[in-house]
Known about the structure:
The protein is 37% helix and 23% strand.
Amino acid sequence: MTVEHFTGKPSMKVMLYALSTCGWCKKTIELLKQLNIEFDYQYVDLLDEKEQDDAMRIVEKFNPRGSLPTIIINDARCIVGFDEKEIIEVLRE
Length: 93
């Protein structure tokens, strides 16, 4: 699976699932970078079919609707969509 990495301040395990064509996904990536949070991300639409299925299975465990962007934090908490206030609050804990 192709996973991109942004090296920022390590604090928690942050994984973002996004679409390369989604404006909200791009805003989420930019916000995480501005916060200097270390995170990994995948553009699900750029993966091959099997990798897309695998990624969406993970997303749907946390977000049954399967909408993107989906941020998974420490394999336990999930933020769905671009909610700037919630992202800042959760990642600054």
